[in-house]
Please model this.
Amino acid sequence: IDMDGADDLLVGSPMLVPHSLATHSGHYDYGRVSIYTTSLKMRLRVALLRRYQPRAPAILLPQPDIILEGTQPGARFGSSLGALGDVDNDGYNDIAIGAPYEMVGDSRRGAVYIFMGSASGLNPQYTQRITPLDIAQPLMTSFGSAIAKSWDADGNLYPDLLVSAVETNQVVMLR
Model:
């Protein structure tokens, strides 16, 4: 995400409920995405661990660097994650996160959130929320069930994205 040459790890937990709401009825499956960036310090720590304790686990993850949380019960934010590449041409990788059961209007149509990368990691505020209503598909449900890795399908030098809506057997290409 931050283009520092080290891999970053994104972990979707779509059925997570925030601890503060866990005992309240009607609060379920908010979802979360935890982002672990691997800094030089982390890589050195893992290298030393492997050298002196070869049977130790390969990676010891600290607390996540960034936590993105769903805001609606039942939305299952983090059900799907997609690497977009650099959609805004700022030199940093961007991502898409699906919340396939998010309420849009009066039903669970779903949504896909776009987050932008930067030198300091991922911006925790999404820059775009895309729903079936935004793409003239008002009957589509479960939009964001799966997100395919982006590629430039139309040759305009910008990555395109495939998003599925499993319950209505549809796939949409976003350009």
In short: The first strand starts at residue 8 and ends at 13. The CA atoms of residues 8 and 37 lie 5 Å apart. The chain has a mean pLDDT of 86. The radius of gyration is 18 Å.
